[in-house]
Design a protein that fits this description.
This protein has 146 residues and is an alpha+beta fold. It has helices at 3-23, 26-32, 48-58, and strands at residues 37-39, 45-46, 69-81, 86-99, 102-119, 122-135.
Amino acid sequence: MNAAADTYAVVNLIARYAELVDAGDFAGVGALFADAVFIGSGAPAEGREAVEKMLRDTVILYADGTPRTHHATTNIAVEVDEEAGTATARSYVTVFQALPELPLQPIAAGRYSDCFERRDGQWRFVERRVRIHLVGDVSGHLRADH
């Protein structure tokens, strides 16, 4: 492959994560991290089942099966090492939410630091570090006991 195609593939993985979380497809997110670790505010979650469980245990889903969120990922910077078959990415994330009792608003903002590897011709997550720097009203998004 070439650097532009590889960068595009990595950006698509970053976007796919946001789409799956916002759709409430935690099994799909788990599949993205089948051979990876997710490091956030709690204990690291490694592998498909652990990442899916972490999301099910912490994120509130509504009657429509979604968390009623919109993850906007911006300022994406990707660096590809063609020879090694690895890549890193840095990006910003802003999470918006709207509920009947909560008008549309940003509820959290932070950064993703990601590592990827190309395996069998496909790019995959190896690690995602999430650092949330700004927190608003997350009472309708995260379970109080987490």
